C-alpha cells in the first residue's frame, strides 16, 4: 500500500509540475521576449507528454491513476477498495501541492503571479456552468480511453500511457481555450493552493469528477469485455483460480469414486453377479502313465582276482 501511494504521489507531482510549469514558462518567455513562446499548443503537448511519462513510471506499481477523478470512479466501479481509494486521492493531492509550491519557489515571482501559478481559468464569455460542462465532456473522453487500455483485460496495457497522453492532448485542443482543460482536480488543486487562487473552483472539481464517473460507468455497461482486477490484486486472482482448480478436482474425484450408502439403515446388499455363460466341456486329456522305477539293489563287493599257482616242478 505504501509503495502504491508513493507511486501516485510522485506521478501526480510530475504531471502538475510539468503542466503548470509550461504555463508559467510561456508567460515568462512572453514577458522577457528572450525567445518565442510556445503558446497554447506547446502547453497542451507538455501536459499530454507529462501524463504519458508519469503513467509509464507509476503504472507498474499503482495502476497510474494520477487523478482523483479516476480513483473515485475506480472505487465506485469496485475496481479498488475504499482504503486504496482514500490513499490514492490523498497521495495525488499531496503530490500536486508539493509541485505547486516547488514551482512557486523556483520560478520568477512576477511570472508565477501573472500566470496564477498555472491555475486553469475560464475563457472570456464562458460561464461556470458551461465551463463545467466542457470539463465533463473532455474528462469523459479521457476516462473512456483509460478504462479501455488500463482497466479492461483485452486492452493493450503496454500502450496505455501513450493512449492516455494522446487523449489528454486531444482534450486540451478541444477545451483549453475555454477552461484550460484540466481534466484532473489535482491539476487545478496544486496550483490553486500554491497561488491561493480558488476562483470558479467548481468547474475543475465537479466537472472532472462527474465526467470521470459517467465515463467509467458507460464503459463498464457498454464496452467491458471481461471482469478485471486493478494493480495489487493479482495475488487474490491467482488464489481464486487455485480454489476453483481444487473444487473441480474434488468434483472429478467425487464423480469417479464408488457410491457410498448414506441412508439410516444398513446398506443394500450387492446384486449377485450373474454366472458366466456355460461353454461346451472339452474332453479330458488322457493321462500318461509314469515309467516304472527299477528296484534299488545293494551293490555286490568286487570279486578278488585269483592268485597265480606256485611252480612245483623243481621238487
Description:
This protein is mostly helical. It has helices at 2-32, 39-62, 68-76, 82-106, 109-114, 128-151, 160-179, 185-195, 201-223, 234-256. It has one domain: Glycerol uptake facilitator protein (Up-down Bundle), CATH 1.20.1080. It is built from 10 helices and no strands. 39% of the residues are buried. The model is unreliable at 252-267 (pLDDT under 50).
* N-end to C-end Cα span: 144 Å
Helix content: 55-70%
Rg over alpha carbons: 46 Å
Structural class: mainly alpha
Round the mean pLDDT to the nearest integer and report it: 81
- Strand composition percent: under 5%
Task: Summarize it.
This protein has about 325 residues and is mostly helical. It has helices at about 1-30, 40-60, 70-75, 80-105, 110-115, 130-150, 160-180, 185-195, 200-225, 235-255.
Sum up the structure in keywords.
mainly alpha; Glycerol uptake facilitator protein; 62% helix
Task: Annotate the secondary structure layout.
Blueprint: H1 2-32, H2 39-62, H3 68-76, H4 82-106, H5 109-114, H6 128-151, H7 160-179, H8 185-195, H9 201-223, H10 234-256
Amino acid at each position: 500500500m505504501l509503495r502504491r501511494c508513493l507511486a501516485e504521489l510522485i506521478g501526480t507531482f510530475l504531471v502538475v509540475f510539468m503542466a503548470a510549469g509550461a504555463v508559467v514558462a510561456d508567460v515568462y518567455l512572453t514577458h522577457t521576449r528572450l525567445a518565442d513562446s510556445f503558446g497554447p499548443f506547446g502547453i497542451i503537448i507538455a501536459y499530454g507528454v507529462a501524463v504519458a511519462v508519469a503513467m509509464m513510471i507509476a503504472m507498474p506499481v499503482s495502476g497510474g491513476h494520477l487523478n482523483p477523478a479516476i480513483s473515485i470512479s475506480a472505487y465506485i466501479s469496485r475496481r479498488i477498495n475504499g482504503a486504496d481509494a482514500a490513499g490514492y486521492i490523498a497521495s495525488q493531492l499531496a503530490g500536486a501541492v508539493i509541485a505547486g509550491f516547488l514551482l512557486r519557489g523556483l520560478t520568477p515571482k512576477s511570472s508565477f503571479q501573472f500566470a496564477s501559478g498555472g491555475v486553469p481559468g475560464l475563457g472570456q464569455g464562458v460561464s461556470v456552468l458551461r465551463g463545467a460542462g466542457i470539463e465533463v465532456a473532455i474528462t469523459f473522453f479521457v476516462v473512456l480511453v483509460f478504462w479501455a487500455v488500463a482497466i479492461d483485460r483485452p486492452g493493450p496495457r503496454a500502450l496505455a500511457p501513450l493512449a492516455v497522453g494522446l487523449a489528454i492532448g486531444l482534450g486540451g485542443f478541444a477545451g483549453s481555450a475555454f477552461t484550460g482543460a484540466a481534466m484532473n482536480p489535482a491539476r487545478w488543486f496544486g496550483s490553486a493552493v500554491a497561488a491561493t487562487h480558488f476562483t470558479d473552483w467548481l468547474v475543475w472539481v465537479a466537472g472532472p469528477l462527474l465526467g470521470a464517473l459517467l465515463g467509467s460507468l458507460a464503459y463498464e455497461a457498454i464496452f467491458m469485455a471481461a471482469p478485471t482486477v486493478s494493480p495489487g490484486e493479482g495475488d487474490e486472482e491467482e488464489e481464486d483460480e487455485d480454489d476453483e482448480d481444487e473444487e473441480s478436482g474434488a468434483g472429478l474425484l467425487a464423480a469417479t469414486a464408488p457410491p457410498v450408502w448414506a441412508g439410516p439403515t444398513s446398506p443394500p446388499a450387492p446384486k449377485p453377479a450373474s454366472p458366466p455363460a456355460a461353454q461346451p466341456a472339452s474332453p479330458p486329456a488322457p493321462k500318461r502313465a509314469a515309467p516304472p522305477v527299477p528296484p534299488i539293489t545293494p551293490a555286490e563287493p568286487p570279486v578278488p582276482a585269483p592268485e597265480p599257482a606256485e611252480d612245483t616242478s623243481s621238487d
